[in-house]
Write a structure and sequence with these properties.
The protein has a domain of 53 residues. 45% of the residues lie in helices and 0% in strands. The chain is built from four helices and no strands. The protein is an all-alpha fold.
Length: 77
Amino acid sequence: MAPRPSLTGFDPKKLAAATKNIKGDPWARYEAWRYTGMFTRFNRFRGTFPGLGIATVAFAGYLVYEEMFMKEEHEHH
């Protein structure tokens, strides 16, 4: 005897197969936005040290200037 079809058309086996999560985390779909787009790891840490690149170049430029033009000519014989 075959099972009777559901009056509503709902099949729990089809629902379980469609919503099966490989990782086993049922909330992974809702948490995925935290790691995409502007929330990627690179984008989150990109603004951690604003101005660090400019400051590094300016400091290196100052060191070169100081070494080349601000040397004191002390010669001890």
